[in-house]
Amino acid sequence: MRINVFEVGIIGLLLAAVGAGAVSGFTGLFLVIGHLTALLALFIVVRNLTAKINNKAARLLFALIALLLLIEASIQLLTGLHLNWFVLSLLMEGGLRQNTGLSPSLSAAAILLAGTGLYWLSAKVTASANLFAAPRIIAIGLATAVSTQFVYAVAYYHGSTNAVHVRRSMPFFWTPHPYQSNKLLGYVFPDRGENPFSVSKIPEGGTAFTPERATLTSIRDKTGASPPNILIIVTDSLRSKDIRQNPDLVPTLTAAGQTGYLSLDHYSVSNCTHFSLYTMFTGALPTSYGTARSLKRKTGILPEMSAAGYSVSTAESVSLDWYDLSDIILPTTVQRWVGEDEDTLESDREVTAKTLAQLASWQQSDTPRLHLAYYHGTHFPYSKALGSSTVPNLDLYKMAIGLFDTELAKILTALNELDLAENTLVIVTSDHGEEFFEDGRVGHASRLSNEQVQVPLLILGAPNRLSMPRSHKDIPELIYATINPARPTSQPPEQIYLANCGYDFPGAFSVINAGGRYDFEFNNGYLIPMDPQNGPKQADMRKAATDLLTLIQ
Fold first, then answer.
1. What is the pLDDT of residues 119-145, one digit of tens each?
2. What domains sit in the chain, N to C, each tagged with a CATH number?
């Protein structure tokens, strides 16, 4: 079988580039080499079969596959994610430019240009060489594919975290469900004994944890006083790191923290908007997001507050329809305003104007109000008014933080001038953080690093008797306890749970407690330690896994 040396060389190099990050230990090296060899053999066979039909179609096939691998390599380099259904779904969601910074027209033009260039090079560089006969190439591809799958199944059966790392990190790598492979291997190998990763069921006598929720049957306490208004201000992608390093970036936030409560060690629970805000308004981990999304089920504190008599409104710089989030967390009766300006600076200013109008209307009504102001200017891409494309993104980001602080100042000033501050619970926070090439990553939704999940939290107007939240999961309890003075106080949980972004269900978790931090991959019902602990720490890790599973199931 003759091959186009240029095409095979390009595909081979690109496969090596997208697979290099998956290498982990000897087992991982074998799996990566075997998988990439099988893919390369598949390309050679399919490309030659296509050439027998039409040479132009064969060159087009090469250009498309090379382009696919280039896109995968770029996504890995910039975000740490892969070209999978989740990433594709991001591109198919509305508001592509606002949420990802990508211009649909420019992206399409770049893809078309790259594909055309590859096709042209394939036609110009026609050097070829004889390779093995077609049956031998097919046999090599099948042998490497089968051996790779077998080694993975055996390694997984025996609890190899290197094998799991390959499955998580290797693009275009599919494996059978472990239930089938483990069942078959059980006939060959001795009893594997205790699950090598973690318990997969709630321990006997345990029950799934459900946050306590009291039905709001009255909007007035026993004294007859009106319950407090609630103002929730969320800005996108605001991490604590820069504020901790330079509090002068946010003078309003810093000053308000002197009279209220300000934490820079707060956790957003997840590193993407739909998961984080779901937890913030429901008190549940986003493990139930997929179910709520598919059922279009109204859930959480906003529908409950509306049913109890609160008037609920929003002002959104960018629509919270992202992944149907609004269908889940917003009540049917909500008064929504959604920005339409493509420039986030102007849209954010409109959010402030709409919020100030809401605050002014609170004076003329005895009905308690809850208003959500959602800002987007701190999310990439930043307003063109901040500077040219030559200004580093981190500098633009810090300027955007300052602009948000300016909008916050207008709202807090209005609360005082309208005499609303004393009877308003104010919560200011962010949905998640952002990375700027810390450890080679940019953006969010890729890993549970502090840059991606540690966000500021400002609380004004909460009763002194209440303990302050440590993560977004605790915020609903703070609101419930604030509006109901008779509600028993409770301490935030000792452990903080983090859930990595996904489409409907998280693919990884972290547990943070007094003993340390424990990171887990979640795969087919099992929690798999990303950093297995030995000695005394192993017991702590297993307890963290058990506690986490009671929340997941």
1. 898 888 877 777 667 888 899 999 999
2. 2-185 (no CATH), 199-212+491-553 (no CATH), 229-489 (3.40.720.10)
